Amino acid sequence: MDHTEKNGKLLEVKDLHVSFFTPAGEVKAVGGISYDLNYGEVMGIVGESGSGKSVEAYSIIGLLQSPGKVIGGSITFEGEDVLAKSKEEMIAFRGSKVAMIFQNPMTCLNPVYTIGNQLIEALKAHDKGVSKEAAAKRAMEMLELVGINNVEKRMKQYPHELSGGMRQRVMIAMGLICHPQLLIADEPTTALDVTIQAQILELMKDLQKKTHMGIIFITHNLGVVAEICDKVSVMYAGKMVEQGPVDDIFYQPGHPYTMGLLRSMPRVDAESYERLIPIEGTPVDMLNPPEGCPFAPRCEHAMKICLQKMPPYVELGNQHRSACWLRVQEQLEREKGEKKEVDGRE
């Protein structure tokens, strides 16, 4: 296994736009998102269902289905333009450079093939020169690495003979068998109970340290984000409304949507009984998204400008930025105060 540590940017997404062209009209699923992921970094993408998290991930790995289409922006992986790759190049790219773990392993594993068969096939698809014996040996090593015991027996079993947690471990083994540099995990713990969820998260943290791969962890569970991620991007209605280091997002959130997500999450460290506060209203219609901030119709702090114009990003700290007119207002007031101070000195 390659343990070489690299520095710098592994993945760069710039102004990505993805739309679905349906008979009812254009659904703007992703509307101009940008972020970087460095080698060995874990980034969480958080947001409620329909915010564009999975669509953005499918665009990176080239699994976007028709009528979905990338209509603008760029995706650069290790300096290479991903969107310019041909179909054959994308097949080689998937698995060898980037892999994905899906939400429900039962729909991703073939019920009529054994676990061993599917792991060997995944490896041989990207490494044509490997013999069946060597592939079987590597498959057993990967199963051991993800914490599955009695691997020889497991190799001969079918997916339905394994528990949900075991199947998810098999999916992780399948994703990592070609040693990718980027792993995209699309809500991999949602279908599991909390005990197995904790084990899977611990496993992913250990594997990330051993292999030094980058991970994009897609979830709507902020507890999971706190456990595994270095930085977080918060998505709402196809836009990144806030980005920053995990501690800043949790302790100094800058966007009302992020604050709403945190308020609606139960806390084990609460000193007294606290009622959870849901985010009022419903998500926007992506066929007719609002002109301004997409969260404005549900925001308790919404101003007139919020409904008319999308706010720019405001830097709130080191690599922490938020797209909110409240933060723009605060910044202008701060700058005005600093100018008064300078003028007073003069």
From TrEMBL:
Pfam families: ABC_tran (PF00005), oligo_HPY (PF08352). Residues 11-262 form the ABC transporter domain. GO terms for biological process: peptide transport. GO terms for molecular function: ATP binding; ATP hydrolysis activity. It is found in: Cell membrane. It comes from the Bacteria. One of its GO terms (cellular component) is plasma membrane. The keyword Nucleotidyltransferase does not apply. Keywords: ATP-binding, Cell membrane, Membrane, Nucleotide-binding, Transport. It is a peripheral membrane protein. Belongs to the ABC transporter superfamily. This is ABC transporter ATP-binding protein. The lineage of its organism: Bacteria, Bacillati, Bacillota, Clostridia, Eubacteriales.
